[in-house]
């Protein structure tokens, strides 16, 4: 049982390790930079856009913005949570803003919403804590969401599937189903792409619609471009009621009539040239018509309708409004003689003067006044404000700085200092007013460029130090560092260019071209530069220097004849020269009987017409005896050394007897 238990524990541990390895393989936005990953990404994008492009006959020009968001979803480090300034990985729960489509970690946006609601609804800033539904903003675009819209679960982009399964053949955080979100602005149709990040593309449906002025015949057009103009004159009646709109067919209301005509003012005394769109206007003359009383004239400036009754007719009150008099309009209302008793500007005391015309005087009564902060009192005229010199020591709503306002009532104003804390990007400081809690993310974006600067991606400020530069498809434009006029074609990159692999093609001393790879910048290992102090010293890494190596010896095969002209062999150009083939010379000696037995050697020709197989001065001299056959009957050797031609006659004396053996003669051998 114990062995079985151990086996099960090891099995579970191995399965957990394998699962973690698979998740880590797809954890980043895009960590495969090889060609297979690009092909795979292209297939996923094509699959996502298939339904849309089938409606547009293959036209994908309206998908560029959505394609950009999807490419960022695949690209390593391009999707960054602006709250924690960390990469958004495939296997992490995320939330997407419906205003700017920026993607955040679900945990980060939940904490952001909670902190924002706490700061806005804090009792230090509002007494209605918990009673009002305060909104919280998106960290990037400041789009406001209700408290009830705080995300609590992880959904795909289209919102259909909760906790979408990690699938390497789908866009990260996508469910793979058709989006079906309503287009903006609403047109009655739904998005046809597969579940995707970013905004939905324009509606691709075809509908039949007419122009703005309704004069042209209805034509089929895409729903996203259903508003169109026939460019004919609009012809609608303008507000002036006299002229028609002459602008080309347009949307919305017609512009005011641009024509000018003579218009009478309201009172009808003056005329002026004015725009047809604003016919009513006032001149600057006083009306001056006699009022019904017959004693006064109308004092209104250029008006329409009757002037009305005389403003001095009927019952009129005295200045203190305690007594009323019925007098002719030609007489002024007298003062009543009673006390004024109007409330003064202080709002506490009343005017003690008799009924009078004009404004009341300021309050001059001596009162015991308390300062605004309530710490001091002083006896002084009622109309003067009393502010002491005591500075407020309360902490403002930022919870950092004191109020320091003289004679503060306790309702301290918000802190007017700039926050100035370094933001998470480490490049900028917070420009907001002094506040509690975390600062908003840095709103700036930084361009990360390739080496040549033609390929650019925008990343949140602070990520430019960790993001990989974009892969550029432009060819490297650096000048070659070797002797070649142009370098091998390769893509834009950082650092040194790869070693030149072109053929050297330098002219050697022999006249041939060097065929090996370029060796102007060869890495050569340096040896013997550092002597170790003892066996305790660790050996250092070998140092390499970049230097130009000389061209190797020429290896072009050259046909070369041996010294004795026995054979022709192909030798490397650098070693092409007279050589011995190690055979016997074989040239016929002067004796015409033997050949030279020396090893293949140089032979000097005495004259140009000499036979090529005749021995020369360098060949051996024949020292043999003559071995030619003697005439029949001659037992003697040739007295000459080995020689050409026939041997001379033998002159040796022989002693012979006659046939009967009685006589002896001495005669030559011949």
Automatic annotation (TrEMBL):
Signal peptide: none
Lineage: Eukaryota, Metazoa, Chordata, Craniata, Vertebrata
GO CC annotation: nucleus
Protein name: NFXL1 protein
Organism the protein comes from: Chauna torquata (Southern screamer)
Key words of the record: Metal-binding, Repeat, Zinc, Zinc-finger
GO molecular-function term, one example from the UniProt record: RNA polymerase II transcription regulatory region sequence-specific DNA binding
Domain spans labelled NF-X1-type: 187-205, 240-259, 293-312, 346-365, 373-394, 398-417, 425-444, 482-502, 591-624, 634-652
Family: Belongs to the NFX1 family.
């Amino acid at each position: 049982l114990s062995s079985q238990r151990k086996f099960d524990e090891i099995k579970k541990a191995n399965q957990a390790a394998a699962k973690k390895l698979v998740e880590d393989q797809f954890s980043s936005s895009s960590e495969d930079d090889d060609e297979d990953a690009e092909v795979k990404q292209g297939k996923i994008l094509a699959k996502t856009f298939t339904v849309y492009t089938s409606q547009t006959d293959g036209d994908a020009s309206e998908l560029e913005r959505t394609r950009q968001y999807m490419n960022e979803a695949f690209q390593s480090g391009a999707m960054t949570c602006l709250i924690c300034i960390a990469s958004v990985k495939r296997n992490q729960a995320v939330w997407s803003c419906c205003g700017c489509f920026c993607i955040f970690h679900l945990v980060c946006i939940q904490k952001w919403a909670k902190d924002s609601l706490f700061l806005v609804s804090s009792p230090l800033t509002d007494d209605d804590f918990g009673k009002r539904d305060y909104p919280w903003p998106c960290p990037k675009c400041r789009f406001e969401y209700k408290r009830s819209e705080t995300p609590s679960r992880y959904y795909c982009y289209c919102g259909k599937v909760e906790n979408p399964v990690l699938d390497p053949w789908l866009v990260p955080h996508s469910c793979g189903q058709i989006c079906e979100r309503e287009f903006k602005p609403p047109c009655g149709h739904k998005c046809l792409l597969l579940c995707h990040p970013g905004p939905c593309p324009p509606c691709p449906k075809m509908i039949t619609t007419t122009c703005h002025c309704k004069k042209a015949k209805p034509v089929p057009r895409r729903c996203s471009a259903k508003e169109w103009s026939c460019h004919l004159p609009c012809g609608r009646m303008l507000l002036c009621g006299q002229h028609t709109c002459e602008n080309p067919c347009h949307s919305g209301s017609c512009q005011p009539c641009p024509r000018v005509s003579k218009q009478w003012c309201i009172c009808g005394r003056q005329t002026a040239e004015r725009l047809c769109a604003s016919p009513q206007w006032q001149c600057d003359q006083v009306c001056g018509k006699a009022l019904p009383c017959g004693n006064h004239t109308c004092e209104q400036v250029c008006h329409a309708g009757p002037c009305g009754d005389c403003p001095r007719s009927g019952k009129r009150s005295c200045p203190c409004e305690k007594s009323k008099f019925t007098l002719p309009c030609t007489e002024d209302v007298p003062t009543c003689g009673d006390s004024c008793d109007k409330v003064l500007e202080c709002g506490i005391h009343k005017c003690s003067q008799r009924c009078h015309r004009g404004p009341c005087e300021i309050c001059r009564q001596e009162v015991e006044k308390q300062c605004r902060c309530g710490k001091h009192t002083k006896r002084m005229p009622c109309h003067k404000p009393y502010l002491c010199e005591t500075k407020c020591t309360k902490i403002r709503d930022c919870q950092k700085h004191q109020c320091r306002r003289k004679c503060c009532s306790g309702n301290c104003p918000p802190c007017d200092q700039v926050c100035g804390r370094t933001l998470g990007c480490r490049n900028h400081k917070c420009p907001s007013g002094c506040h509690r809690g975390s600062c908003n993310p840095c709103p700036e974006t930084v361009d990360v460029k390739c080496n040549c600067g033609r390929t650019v991606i925008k990343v949140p400020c602070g990520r430019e130090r960790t993001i990989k530069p974009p892969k550029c498809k432009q060819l490297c434009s650096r000048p070659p560092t070797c002797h070649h006029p142009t370098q091998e074609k390769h893509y834009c990159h950082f650092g040194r260019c790869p070693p030149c692999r072109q053929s050297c093609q330098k002219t050697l001393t022999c006249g041939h071209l060097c065929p090996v790879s370029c060796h102007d910048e060869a890495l050569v290992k340096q040896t013997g530069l550092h002597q170790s102090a003892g066996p305790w010293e660790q050996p250092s890494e070998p140092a390499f220097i970049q230097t130009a190596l000389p061209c190797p010896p020429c290896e072009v095969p050259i046909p070369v004849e041996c010294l004795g002209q026995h054979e022709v062999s192909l030798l490397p150009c650098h070693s092409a020269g007279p050589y011995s083939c190690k055979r016997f010379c074989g040239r016929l000696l002067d004796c015409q009987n033997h050949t030279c037995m020396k090893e293949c050697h140089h032979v000097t020709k005495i004259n140009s017409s000499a036979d090529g197989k005749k021995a020369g001065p360098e060949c051996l001299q024949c020292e043999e005896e003559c071995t030619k056959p003697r005439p029949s009957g001659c037992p003697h050797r040739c007295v000459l050394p080995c020689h050409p031609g026939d041997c001379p006659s033998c002159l040796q004396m022989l002693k012979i007897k006659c046939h009967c053996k009685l006589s002896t003669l001495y005669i030559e051998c011949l």
